[in-house]
Amino acid sequence: xxxxxxxxxxxxxxxxxxxxxxxxxxxxxxxxxxxxxxxxxxxxxxxxxxxxxxxxxxxxxxxxxxxxxxxxxxxxxxxxxxxxxxxxxxxxxxxxxxxxxxxxxxxxxxxxxxxxxxxxxxxxxxxxxxxxxxxxxxxxxxxxxxxxxxxxxxxxxxxxxxxxxxxxxxxxxxxxxxxxxxxxxxxxxxxxxxxxxxxxxxxxxxxxxxxxxxxxxxxxxxxxxxxxxxxxxxxxxxxxxxxxxxxxxxxxxxxxxxxxxxx
Length: 263
Fold this sequence. Notes:
Helix content is about 35%, strand content about 20%. It is of the alpha/beta class. The chain has two domains: about 5-45 and about 215-250; about 75-200, no CATH class. A hairpin with a 5-residue loop joins strand 3 (about 85-95) and strand 4 (about 100-110). Helix 1 runs antiparallel to helix 4. The two termini are about 45 Å apart. The mean pLDDT is about 90.
């Protein structure tokens, strides 16, 4: 009664089931790997945000790269803002996806080195974005700031093209090496997202902190794929049994006898 499994239809269905099972198992492991990666990143971010503030020069120096363990660490720096050499970073959005700029201001430390400080977001003055926008001034004089340490931006990591021929004092990426050439100064690696002192009237608009990646969703997807993989052979066997019952029922049906005709 199982010879029907050799038919073309059932051979194709069986091969499809055989291929689906390892594919779904592999997808489950891939989702679990993504879950572990996201969990590890969330742990790193949480550790960095909870760590006590440290002087910025204890984590970075001119020409150094910010690692994943140093990213988001709260740092302090003492010096003064140099607004004369301030630039804006094009095509940046706020929390409502409005396009504008990030304000990047050099912060000259007491030892003469320069720290790049992202002071926040401002709206674009117009659609052309060719003129340098009006930027609220930071506090004057010597001060101590705190902020979140960030790595240099690159096209590979951000997907943002580093365009040439931009309007004066406008850039696409925050990169300490490029800014060191422009400023002709010793610029610390990476940059800082400003936390304090807070801007007056929330302008520039402060940049929010990082959020947790939804690692639990990947865990749920992994379990889901493995359940699907387990359901395939169960479903295949259910279809086989149903086909067998249907064939047996068809064979048990006898043709009805013809009734005699009364004349």
